[in-house]
Amino acid sequence: MAASFEKREKITVLSIDGGGIRGIIPGTILAFLESKLQELDGPKARIADYFDIVAGTSTGGLVTTMITAPGKEGKPMFAAKDINNFYFEHLPKIFPQYSRFNFVKAITNFVGELTGPKYDGKYLRTVINQKLGNLTLKETLTNVLIPSFDIKLLQPVVFSTNDAKESVLKNARLADVCIGTSAAPTFLPAHYFETKDTTSGETRTFDLIDGGVAANNPTLIAISHATKDILKYKNRPILDARHMLVLSLGTGESKKEQRYSAAKSSEWGMTTWIYEGGRTPIIDIFTDASSDIVDFHVSTLFQSINCMGNYLRIQDDSLSGDAASVDIATNENLQKLAEKGRNLLKEPVSRIDVETGRFQNVVGEGTNEDALAKFAKLLSQERKIRTQLVNSSL
């Protein structure tokens, strides 16, 4: 990467937020992006072919793994168009819903929520282990970054392909990484596993919960990781916004619903912060805050040197009701989220207003579809330049 970067190539980054069932929204957007890449470079083109780093938290970590884990013939296990099919098939079993008319089951479920996680996570663990088996981080088709949080050490853990290639103890199974980054507090149980270096006999333990508590929007982590890699090389160029192409995908927020208020929350106790009206306020707050502060920072980074064209953030801040949840996995709600994703493609490009926290339409940049088509061309051009450089050095 260092040699080609010195020839003015760009580091390409894809980042996908956490958000439970709302992963259907970035799934829809990625399917569109991959179709545009295939129009340019043929039907075998896959997203993993174009990004140096793919970062994802929680449900974003699952999507990241789906599009980068090796499958047949050296291609990713999932084409982007198949992400939502996976979600539609498995989410209702990961987050089973119980009818209010099934009184006994509803009461049993509610009591369970008070004494343990809302869902037991067994189906999630089963399906992830079935799909990924013993594949490890170092085997992904491009460099991935998946944040989690170690509750024993009280610090974030960022799993990455590059680190896994350098250290056996960091080369965790992809299944364990996915389960760990998805273990949202109150919703799913924490995940424990170990890695072992059979040569030295050393082991490392992990006690993980959802990466969203540290970095629900992992864009900044991805940029920092790219910078760290560049610093390894002598005569390194300066990595700034001019030398990056960054696509950051949100999973939707409910800012316009204005569900919470100071007047209302000032009367809440500990349990209400955890459960109020079918939602979990404390989790909604820290995940949205984490996502937005990263977007503020990255937007400023690119605006400061007039390179906003190199950073595209696609986010919907108008979710409401069940669509804003992370776990209401009814077929009706999942279909609604897919429709939200399709509608988001048709909406104008927007950027976050640091004063209001809401996304404002950007005049003259067209729709998100237009922006993604343009981004696909930039990615295709970048890949062609790299191919030419490799061929010329042979």
UniProtKB/TrEMBL annotation:
Residue span of motif GXGXXG: 18-23
Span of the annotated motif DGA/G: 210-212
Organism, scientific name: Acer negundo (Box elder)
Enzyme Commission number(s) from the entry: 3.1.1.-
Biological process terms in GO annotation: defense response; lipid catabolic process
Domain remark from Swiss-Prot or TrEMBL: The nitrogen atoms of the two glycine residues in the GGXR motif define the oxyanion hole, and stabilize the oxyanion that forms during the nucleophilic attack by the catalytic serine during substrate cleavage.
PROSITE patterns: PNPLA
Domain PNPLA: 14-223
Similarity annotation: Belongs to the patatin family.
Catalytic residues of the enzyme: S58, D210
Keywords of the record: Hydrolase, Lipid degradation, Lipid metabolism, Plant defense
The protein's enzyme class: hydrolase
Record-given protein name: Patatin
Function: Lipolytic acyl hydrolase (LAH).
GO molecular-function terms, A-Z: monoacylglycerol lipase activity; phospholipase activity
PANTHER family the record matches: PATATIN (PTHR32176:SF99), XYLOSE ISOMERASE (PTHR32176)
Domain of life: Eukaryota
Short motif (GXSXG): ranges: 56-60
